[in-house]
Amino acid sequence: MPTGVHLRDARRHLFDAAERVLLREGPGGLTSRAVTDEAECAKGVLHRHFTDFDDFLVGLVLDRSGQLDVQARELGSRVGAGEVTGNLAEALTALFGPVPVAIIPLITFRDGLRARLREAMPGGGIAILAQVAAAVSAYLTGECAAGRIAADADVDSLTLSLVGGGHLLFADREPGPPDAEAVHRLVGTVLADVLQRRPR
Fold first, then answer.
1. Burial of 191 from C-beta contacts in 10 A (0-12 / 13-18 / 19+)
2. Among the four residues 25, 79, 91, 132, which has the most C-beta atoms within 10 Å?
3. Res 7 pLDDT > 90
4. How many of the other CB atoms lie within 10 Å of CB of 93?
5. Count of CA atoms in the C-beta half-sphere (13 A) of 178
6. 3-class SS at 152?
7. Cβ(165)–Cβ(194) under 8 Å?
């Protein structure tokens, strides 16, 4: 990489390289050397733009977690339209895509990264999971107000069940992500009571 590359371009190039390493090698394989090798640039390029590797990882997580905001807005726009179970099943599949699922263990096993993320964003210590939970909670709250699920639904508990169950379904990607039927079944089971008790 030429040394004169604009900062924004250098960051994007390094983040994209880190994502490829993370998806291929997992959190244990994500090192500064692996990133710069994948990016085909000198190791100094990374350290020119970040104070250390944890600083780089914070930037990576914030950049990739920002992409979840688009999916969260998409879920929010579906309040009152379509099928509640289908909306949530599709949203969980998008929110727990390959990159978010790969980032979660990265955060879990790096204490320094978690500490810095807490300083950088609300709920940052569990970035990704916190964002998924916020999106699901906001959607369920909207559907309560729209009368499509029971008004007394325990949104917090439903959110924990959906996010926790969704994460478990998507965490083991070795045989591939779960099929659409499995995700739909999870959502339907969690929401069965509040859907049955909604106003007719």
1. buried
2. 132
3. no
4. 19
5. 22
6. coil
7. no
> How many whole angstroms separate alpha carbon 119 and alpha carbon 115?
7
Q: What is the CATH number of domain 1-49?
A: 1.10.10
Question: Would the pLDDT of 112 be above 90?
Answer: no
Cβ–Cβ < 8 Å for 143, 80: yes
Q: Which residue has the tokens 């998806």?
A: 23
Q: Is the pLDDT of residue 4 over 50?
A: no
CATH 1.10.10 domain position(s) in the chain: 1-49
Q: What is the identity of the amino acid at 40?
A: E
Extended beta strands in the chain, E state: none
Amino acid occupying residue 22:
L
Residues 13 and 41 sit within 8 Å (Cβ to Cβ): yes
62-82 CB burial, b ≥16 within 10 A, e <16: eebbeebeebbeebeebbeee
Whether the full predicted model's pTM is greater than 0.90, yes or no, is no
Residues 6 or more apart whose Cβ sits within 8 Å of residue 171: 101, 104
SS3 assignment, position 150:
coil
Q: Using CB atoms within 10 A of its CB, is residue 4 exposed (0-12), middle (13-18) or buried (19+)?
A: exposed
Sign of CA dihedral 185, 187, 190, 192: negative
**Residue 180 CB: number of other CB atoms within 10 A?**
12
Mean pLDDT across the chain: 87
Residue whose pair of structure tokens reads 């983040």 in the numeric block: 15
Give me the amino acid identity at 20.
Answer: R
Considering just the CA atoms, what is the radius of gyration of the chain in Å?
A: 19
